[in-house]
């Protein structure tokens, strides 16, 4: 079987976790791995402050809480994303404003953001979908003009860069996920990063139950906070993964190059486009199947899975789900979102996939199109 995306655990993970267990400092207080992991993550991304948390959803939730986004505020977000991006807006009681994506790389359409901004807008959450970068230059321009916060959902885009900037480092806050299927993993985990000292202080305070220690050692909590800290034992795992991150990114890029080479020139089969100043690390490789391809997208995925090649359709539009049926949809419908969602396929993308496996995936795709176009 060729899996969709499984972790690569081949460095110091076992040694560091063992060392952590032997030290007894497995939780979030004490122990050295947590600080080290956060420091090294900041060194990698170039973002000043990093806070390790229990998952990417917690990172996004904390981001909104730290920026005081709440009832009466509107948050602009794409509908083509994982449910967490939008759940967190509901967690803080703000209003979801769904906008469309572009057809080039499936990220939020900046023209649609401009239309969606109102007096109540407080934040935008662009999602760097599957590693493809949202247009952060334009998004930050709109944000500055309208005094809005930008929280980057970079959970899928660790390693993607624009000029010298890393995904997650362009907005006020960047959020990452270390779920088992992501570029690097801690089993479950996440990171919330910012260059702003004041925002960081607030994140740090909220993630740790707003814990304040008095002179006599009593612990008090002056606000409602969250228990979102990552435990030291996961940070030990994460540090070992971080040591291999450059290697992981390099391999991810080779995988994309090989997919593009093998699948070039097939009628009706497209790839996401990137700009010349972008250096993309595709977390999951993407293809789009249009009518000219001649095979139904869902049938194709079924066929691939029967051949033991695990593929997945793109995210289903959130505004079409019952949980979000009452939310505002800009322009009444999101045509590009529905088109991308209906056409897109994620291909197997594990760091450990072999070139032979990629060639096999592509030959199944080529054969299915040969059969249909003859
Ligand atoms: C776009 C997006 N946002 C948020 C998340 C949430 O991350 P986690 O699963 O670590 O909570 C994920 C991934 O799982 C994701 O793909």
Automatic annotation (TrEMBL):
GO biological process, one term: polysaccharide biosynthetic process
N6-(pyridoxal phosphate)lysine, modified sites: 182
InterPro entries: DegT/StrS_aminotransferase (IPR000653), PyrdxlP-dep_Trfase (IPR015424), PyrdxlP-dep_Trfase_major (IPR015421), PyrdxlP-dep_Trfase_small (IPR015422)
Signal peptide: none
Active-site annotation: 182 (proton acceptor)
GO molecular function terms noted in the UniProt entry: pyridoxal phosphate binding; transaminase activity
Keyword Transferase part of the UniProt annotation: yes
Keywords: Aminotransferase, Pyridoxal phosphate, Transferase
Keyword Transmembrane: no
Pfam families reported for this sequence: DegT_DnrJ_EryC1
Family: Belongs to the DegT/DnrJ/EryC1 family.
Protein name: Aminotransferase class I/II-fold pyridoxal phosphate-dependent enzyme
Organism ancestry: Bacteria, Bacillati, Bacillota, Clostridia, Eubacteriales
